[in-house]
Design brief:
By secondary structure, the protein is an alpha+beta fold. The protein has helices at about 10-20, 20-40, 70-80, 85-95, 105-115, 145-200, 210-255, 265-285, 290-305, 310-325, 325-405, 430-455, 460-470, 480-485, and strands at about 45-55, 120, 135-140, 410-415, 475-480, 495-500. The strands form two sheets. Strands 2-3-1-4 form a four-stranded antiparallel sheet. Strands 5-6 form a two-stranded antiparallel sheet.
Length: about 500
């Protein structure tokens, strides 16, 4: 008997020896049912084909492909589009499927049946391909082999056409989008170019790239200012010397007019004055200077007159001097006027250089502020220029990818094997149903044997008695069949013994 739902080996052997015929009986019955099922059940035929995704002819290093997603990801969306209700309804109407169900079942139910009949799976990635699926497998199961083949061919054709159309649409949309973005980027770049040109026009001379030239110009202007200052100082010194000479010459000339030249002492004073003038000129001019030479000649002439008879000739010279001013005085007056003009020109030049220096200093001082504004403006301009260049490159890539798609040299679906014609049904299969029935029959037989053993409440051993009655066994009384057998079996090991138990009073 079973204890706590557990069956011992002894019980199992006992049940198996008694009911062994249940196992082959169930196996034969269910195996026969499996065979009959292969003859009775409606047959299904499966048509299969394999589609490979051929890589682009041109390397992706030169032209980026339109589709960069993995085939498994794209296959999911393409499967939803191909197996959609409108697409499958076209196949149903084209191949005239489900004729016997047209009036009884709605079109949505027929589409649902056809969707269940189609199976699309991605192929396992090949080693060394980076986990990318090389293609996909299409299978269609239908009740007629010819229709299964036709449906499989139509589904495969839809996938290839859908892939080509999808790639073309993606290429066109990408190209159009890049064109629109490029126009926007070009407008922004033109705006930045205009702002940059206006900024350069407004701050001309104070731009960062002109700072070094401004410093160089400022250094040159400072040198010119120093030279102009020196020239102005020299001009002022010349004027002072010429004014001194003029004053002395005028004094001497006036003394001559008053008859001073007739006095030898006056002639000596005039000689001393001329020599003093010569000394002043030598401090400024070289001995070969025309003025110095002329003054020397005057000194020599005066010395000769003093050596001669000055008294007799003095009145004649005095009268001549009264009539005309000496040419030397006229030259000195002209030089003084020329010195005034030179000083005025030099002063104007000095002021002009100082104004230019102030302008350059203002530019140099304003350069840091202008440089900060210029950096902000050029940063925006460089960003707009970079965006424009990137979009221009991407538009060129998308245009080449579109042209490549037009030439059918991009990724395309190639049918490796055309849709197969199923010569044998894929359901039901005798090779599966017959062994399955035999195995199921054996499993059912073992289940029945377990149920018989579980439901058996008979006691066959001392332990069964003790566990069932909760009383100790006093002795075992053999059955008459055991005595006839010669008592060959030991007590307790055969069911032909009956136990006598102690009864509580």
């Amino acid at each position: 008997m079973a204890r706590n739902g557990e069956i011992s080996v002894t019980d199992a052997k006992r049940v198996l020896r008694k009911y062994w015929w249940l196992l082959p009986l169930n196996a034969v019955v269910l195996g026969s049912l499996g065979y009959v099922a292969t003859l009775v059940l409606p047959k299904k035929y499966t048509s299969e084909t394999t589609v490979l995704a051929q890589q682009p002819v041109v390397s992706s290093d030169y032209v980026k492909p339109v589709e960069t997603d993995d085939l498994s990801i794209r296959l999911a969306s393409m499967k939803a589009e191909v197996l959609s209700a409108p697409q499958l309804q076209q196949i149903i109407e084209k191949l005239n499927l489900y004729v016997d169900q047209r009036g009884k079942t709605s079109m949505d139910d027929l589409v649902g049946q056809l969707q269940k009949a189609v199976d699309v799976k991605a192929l396992e990635p090949m080693p060394g391909t980076g986990g990318r699926a090389p293609g996909f497998h299409v299978s269609v199961t239908f009740n007629q082999p010819q229709l299964a083949q036709q449906i499989c061919a139509e589904i495969t054709k839809m996938f290839t056409e859908q892939n080509a159309q999808r790639n073309m649409e993606h290429a066109k949309l990408t190209t159009d989008f890049m064109g629109q973005e490029l126009q926007v980027a070009k407008a922004k770049l033109d705006d930045q170019d205009g702002k940059l040109a206006q900024f350069k026009k407004q701050y001309l001379g104070t731009l960062p790239e002109e700072e070094q030239s401004n410093l160089s110009l400022l250094e040159g202007m400072n040198t010119q200012l120093a030279a102009a200052t020196q020239a102005l100082s020299r001009a002022q010194e010349d004027k002072a010397i010429n004014e001194t000479l003029l004053a002395q010459q005028e004094a001497n000339w006036k003394a001559t007019l008053s008859g001073g030249l007739q006095n030898p002492d006056t002639m000596e004073q005039q000689l001393a004055s001329l020599q003093e003038q010569l000394s002043l000129m030598l401090l400024r001019y070289t001995p070969e200077h025309p003025d110095v030479l002329k003054l020397k000649s005057q000194i020599e002439a005066l010395k000769r007159r003093m050596a001669e008879d000055p008294v007799a000739k003095a009145p004649v010279e005095s009268s001549v001097a009264k009539l005309h001013e000496p040419a030397q005085l006229q030259q000195l007056r002209t030089r003084v006027k020329q010195d005034d003009l030179n000083i005025a020109d030099l002063a104007k030049g000095q002021n002009r250089i100082q104004d230019q220096i102030r302008v350059l200093e203002g530019r140099v001082q304003a350069s840091p502020v202008v440089e900060q504004k210029y950096k902000e403006l050029t940063r925006d301009h460089d960003t707009a220029q970079q965006i424009y260049n990137d979009l221009l490159r991407k538009q060129s890539d998308s245009s080449m990818a579109k042209d490549l798609q037009h030439q059918q040299e991009s990724e395309v679906f190639s049918i490796l094997d055309p849709a197969s014609y199923p010569s044998a049904p894929s359901f039901p299969k005798l090779i599966l149903f017959l062994p399955g029935g035999l195995v199921a029959g054996l499993a059912l037989g073992f289940g029945i044997l377990y149920l018989i053993a579980f439901l058996d409440k008979a006691m066959y051993s001392e332990r069964d008695v003790e566990l069932s009655l909760k009383l100790p066994v006093l002795t075992m009384v053999p059955a008459f069949s055991a005595l006839k057998e010669g008592g060959a079996k030991k007590r307790g090991n055969s069911p032909n013994y009956k136990a006598a138990v102690a009864v509580k009073v």
